[in-house]
Design goal:
The complex is a heterodimer of chains A (about 120) and B (about 120). Chain A is mainly beta. Helices cover about 0% and strands about 55% of the residues of chain A. Chain B is mostly beta strands. Chain B contains no helices and eleven strands. In chain B, strands 2, 4, 5, 6, 9, 10 and 11 form a seven-stranded mixed β-sheet that branches. A four-stranded antiparallel β-sheet of chain B has the order 1-3-8-7, with no helix packed on it. The relative contact order of chain B is 0.33. The chains are: A mainly beta (about 120), B mainly beta (about 120). The interface between A and B is medium-sized, with 22 and 25 residues.
């Protein structure tokens, strides 16, 4: 079955530290990849997406992610976090196989706490 | 604000009851998706409608049903509610075609509590 896994369930770090969140997926064929963020009490917001082209994608709020096809990975990075980055981060994958439909399959999420 | 609206924000009900959650997609979007977010199951896809037609089903229980109306708003009906149905229910919408069809915009969610 298709799945998405995020390696870290919880991450605690200090302001100005660098952040890297891992995401691996198991899908055959072409995929679209997404990172969403959910701030406390809020809805999911898109941070960045990869459809095709340059595997290094830049998103909002200084986030970037790298797609490594050979590793089935799409890791999220931010060089220097701020307290306001405290949130839960979700990796999501959409298979472009027609039979899979247009659904997103989400990883389990990573809760990030940034200490001031 | 994504442009996707959901009502109500919160819903508290008892086991065995039936509730209806409502979603209005962004202007111009034809697709509506429903997702359930719970502590034990995480974020799971329930169902997808496109311009009034069901397009895909995920892990949606038989007690749950959905529909999309001609004005494109959608309703998710949950019946014979159980404690385990307590969750945050998100609706998302996406543009009708092209590469942007692949991006989904999420609403604020409805938090359902079953007592």
């Amino acid at each position: 079955a298709q799945s998405v896994s995020q390696h870290n369930h919880h991450v605690i770090l200090s302001e100005a530290a660098s952040l890297e969140l891992g995401c691996n997926y198991s899908y055959g064929g072409t995929v679209n990849l997404f990172w969403y963020v959910q701030y406390p009490g809020q809805h999911l917001q898109l941070l960045l997406k990869y459809f095709s082209g340059d595997p290094l994608v830049k998103g909002i709020k200084g986030f970037e992610a790298e797609f490594i096809k050979s590793k089935f990975s799409f890791n999220l990075r931010k060089p220097s976090v701020q307290w306001s980055d405290t949130a839960e981060y979700f990796c999501a994958v959409k298979s472009l196989i027609k039979a899979a439909g247009n659904k997103l399959t989400f990883g389990g999420g990573t809760r990030v706490l940034v200490k001031p | 604000d994504s442009g996707v609206t959901q009502t109500p924000k919160h819903l508290i009900t008892a086991t065995g009851q039936r509730v209806t959650l409502r979603c209005s997609p962004r202007s111009g979007d034809l697709s509506v998706y429903w997702y359930q977010q719970s502590l034990d199951q995480g974020l799971q896809f329930l169902i997808h409608y496109y311009n009034g037609e069901e397009r895909a089903k995920g892990n949606i229980l038989e007690r749950f049903s959905a529909q999309q109306f001609p004005d494109l708003h959608s309703e998710l009906n949950l019946s014979s509610l159980e404690l385990g149905d307590s969750a945050l229910y998100f609706c998302a919408s996406s543009p009708p075609f092209g590469g942007a069809y692949n991006e989904q915009f999420f609403g604020p969610g409805t938090r359902l509590t079953v007592l």
